[in-house]
Structures are given as C-alpha cells and as structure tokens.
Design brief:
about 250 residues, 4-stranded antiparallel beta sheet, Creatine Amidinohydrolase, alpha+beta, 3-stranded antiparallel beta sheet
Length: about 250
C-alpha cells in the first residue's frame, strides 16, 4: 500500500534529511585521491551517531555497511573497501538516515581529483536528469512523466538509463510499495498525490543500461564496464510542488 504522509510526518523526514544533507556536505570536503571508501563509511557512521541518527541500511537484508560506495563502473550497492580512491575516479556515496524512526535517502556522485571530460559530462547530465525528474513530480502528474523526462534527456545525449533499479516510496521503512522508474512513457503510471514521499535516483551509464551483479549478491556494475553515475534525493509532494528533503543547499 502506498503510504500518504501528513505534514507533521514530512517534517520528521525533513529533519532526517537535513542530517543526511549535512553529512554529504562533509563528505564533499573529504573526497580526494588516497582516501578509501571504507574511511568514508566509518566517518558517515560516526557522524550520524553524533547527530542522534543511525545508518538504516547497515544490517538491512544483511548489508554490512553504513553506506553504499560505488566506484566507476559500479552502478549501485558497492561495498566500501580499503583500496585508496585514485585520481580520475568517480565514486557514488549512498546512505539512508534513520532519525527517531523516520528515514531519508540520498546518493551523490563525487569526482576524485581531476577527472576526464567523459566522466565530467556523465556526472553533469546525471544530475540534470535528477532535477528534471523532480520538476515533473507534481500532484496530478503520473510517475511516467518523471521517468520520461529522465529517459528522454539522457538518451538524447547518448547515455542509457538503468532499468533494474528504481526510486521508491520511503517513510518509516526504506522501501514501500511505490516504485519510481527512471524511464517510461509520459501520461502513464500511478498518479502522483499530495503527501507521497519517494526517492528519485537515476543511474545513468555511458554504455549499455544492462547491469551484472558481483558474487557478493549486492554490487551491480555496468555489463560492458562503462562508467556510471547516480544522484538521488528524497522528495515530498505538496500542494505547492515537490520539496527536496535532502537538499544540500538548504540545511
């Protein structure tokens, strides 16, 4: 069942989102060649604990870390490692914050040092896809409008949109029954209603949209080894349009 949130409940989620956004701002300062994603993971867990929150995905269905850390061709659900990040890498840090039982979810791709023009363009288009999708997430529209905006923009620029992983409803649980594809046809899908809260999190690839999963049964990577990037926000649907609960610029 799709859960409709009250203004009060959205306020609780916004508080979790502010902690998450501030954590990403701190990560932004840390990203440089030589740091490991395991160091970032430890920082995130400590930061959330210090702010009265916790990392929701640690232990979720057996996932062992506070963050997902996906590097280069890893699409999502990457395991943090002790391997130092190197100049030219792109790394996506994804986390779900639990504050007093209410959740917020956001992933962000980061450049490690100086990156190639190819990687830079991918990150730019992926972030633009996120905000184009959010722009379509208004009451009365359909989820297909969100997916179509993302897919058409990405594909017109020569990129592909991952199909196997989607956005989702969120609240007191990490994934409710609402599925938010990043592809589709305008005017199709579930009608967007005031009080819905969900993530939009396009994963955009330079090559094929197809993925394969590592032996750890979690980490998805591009089937052809091409670069992938992802940006994600948790948004709430209001009568005045979507509110970004994980906005890093409005903490």
């Amino acid at each position: 069942m799709i859960d409709i949130k009250s203004k009060e409940e959205i306020g609780y989620m916004a508080a979790a989102g502010r902690i998450l956004a501030s954590c990403h701002r701190e990560i932004r300062k840390m990203i440089k060649p030589g740091i490991s994603s395991m160091e970032i993971d430890a920082f995130v867990e400590n930061y959330l604990n210090e702010h009265g929150a916790k990392a929701e995905q640690k232990g979720y269905m057996g996932f062992p870390y506070a963050t997902c850390a996906s590097v280069n061709d890893e699409v999502c659900h990457g395991f943090p490692t002790k391997k130092p990040l190197k100049e030219g890498d792109i790394v996506t840090i994804d986390m779900v914050v639990n504050l007093n039982g209410w959740l917020a979810d956001s992933a962000w791709s980061y450049a490690v040092g100086k990156i190639s023009k190819e990687a830079e363009d991918l990150m730019k288009v992926t972030k633009e896809c996120l905000y184009l999708g959010i722009k379509k997430a208004v009451a009365g529209n359909r989820l297909g409008d969100v997916g179509h905006a993302i897919q058409s923009y990405a594909e017109e620029r020569g990129y592909s949109v991952v199909r196997d992983y989607t956005g989702h409803g969120i609240g007191r649980i990490m994934h409710d029954d609402l599925v938010v594809p990043h592809y589709g046809r305008a005017g199709r899908g579930i009608r967007i209603r005031e009080g819905m809260v969900f993530t939009i999190e396009p994963m955009i690839n330079i090559g094929t949209y197809r993925v394969k999963v590592d032996d750890n049964d979690w980490t998805a990577r591009t089937a052809d080894g091409s670069l992938s990037a992802q940006y994600e926000h948790t948004i709430a649907i209001t009568s005045n349009g979507p509110i970004i609960l994980t906005d890093q610029d409005k903490i």
